[in-house]
Amino acid sequence: MGLTLAEKIIKNHLVTGKMVKGTDIGLRIDQTLTQDATGTMAYLEFEAMGIDRVRTERSVAYIDHNTLQTGFENADDHRFIQTVCKKHGIYFSRPGNGICHQVHLERFGVPGKTLIGSDSHTPTGGGIGMLAIGAGGLDVAVAMGGGEYYITMPKIVNVELTGALQENVSAKDIILEVLRILSVKGGVGKIIEYSGQGVRSLSVPQRATVTNMGAELGATTSIFPSDENTRAFLLAQGREEDYTELHADDDAVYDEVITIDLSSLQPLAACPHSPDAVKPVTELEGMPINQVCIGSCTNSSYTDLMKVAHILKGRTVADNVSLAIAPGSKQVLNMLAQNGALSDLIDAGARILESACGPCIGMGQSPNSKGVSLRTFNRNFLGRSGTKDADIYLVSPEVAAVSALTGVITDPRKFSDGYTVEMPARFLINDNMIIEPAPIDQMDQIEVLRGPNIKEFPQTTALPKELNVTCALKVEDNITTDHIMPAGAKILPLRSNIPAISEYCFTVCDSEFPARAKMLGASIIVGGSNYGQGSSREHAALAPLYLGVKAVLVKSFARIHRANLINAGIIPLEFVDESDYDTVALGDQIVIDDVRAQIKNGDTVTVVNKTKNTEIQTRCILTDRQKEIILSGGLLNYTTSK
User: How large is the greatest C-alpha to C-alpha distance in the chain, in angstroms?
Assistant: First the structure.
């Protein structure tokens, strides 16, 4: 029986375990990436392990999130990260060089390699044939130290692509169609592997759009084969030596197969407030809009923005629309500047933003109150834009550009004129904004510089024999990490200061939660299904940890957040009978007797609701290693003890 592409890469990197679906496996990690919103904490964790030099083939730190710098905090974090990188063997991508996933694809991604990153959209690397996975910062720190990265061996879903896209139907429409089919939790525990004749018609940037937004499926990762299109991209980036042909065996066996005819796709939009609330643009056509934002790690490639420039050339953005465009990298911005496309964008009335994440993470460009904003981004969670009552639609660059001109949602096929963007034979290559680490013999001369906003990783202790806690919060289904630990210009600068950022924990859901949790001292959170979907930010586990949360009891978890809870030493519990969710209320007293023994000896934990005098059976399915982590009080304690 043949292997899938993902299975081949896993097999080549397997250190611990066997490739048996649903079991724990440990992988050797070739590359890591961090960004500045998660990086400071990841490097504090790396320092705490006492390892002098990273042991990966390549580790890169990017500055692309906290670039607004309205105070000293962000600049201090950037300085800290830069000095840590110089000292410990990590490449440093300076602010202005671009968004981590775009730059990593351009300059560092290698087919067949493993990559984990402290950003949930790290699977972008799957567009070039990498096994690229989003993870918490502590997992990345362990990998930088040479440790294995543990995941549950996933199922493999084959998305077979046939045909070719029509004009002004794009790669964004492919992933929106997959989201429509599978939903935001349909990829949990799975790798999405693309194959079929239709793959040959897609460039690496198009593939990267699909794998990037595959994160919204809840999938472990997504991956495309490495073929002649991959080779052409790497050749154009001056990195042809990194090319390796990779594909699944002809007799590979998949757990599920989905077939999508690219020629039958039409422009799609994800409606408020979920990436899987997908409708055809034709059903929304004519809706007045107020704002258009083009960019993010999903759709800010050279080919994306050249298509946008062509649509806008010689025209003017509608009076009622504010158009903002953020190129994904310095490479893209320079090429647009040199070939005149940047002038076309500016002439049309676009506001050009720096090459950074920007409005995708709520860092500027919030829509007007009750505004309608079309965005080429990957998430449209309620309030993520910075305007809670705004309606955010996720669309392709073609839909965004055409609608910016008409002032209403418009089917871009009406503007078809036969124009196509050719992949450059040679991209503009200038890595002067990437700082190399100091040689090993000079690392001791480097001083790591810390600002007053940088606080240490929260201290944890071993799990006690018994838990006696209060339900400090009860929330519904599909709670995102934006609900738990909001982003935005006000809060992101506090990512390196857990005590300060904890004051905003869950305030989107309940403004009293931080004060209540601190008053209680020890508490439990109760939630619905797909709890913790969205970002990889470990702050959504570290802030509750700091506030005294000992366990989270829900119907089901999103993958990365569950891993982050375990890493923080917070017990992840799931209702055996989901109807028991209705029996727990805010303020109920919860007791777990012999919790250490229950976790150590089985996969179920009995929870007693003292207030209601009822017992609730819960699942706590942990590997032996994860049990040790929970019993130790978290991954950092576990790792340092080893």
Answer: 72
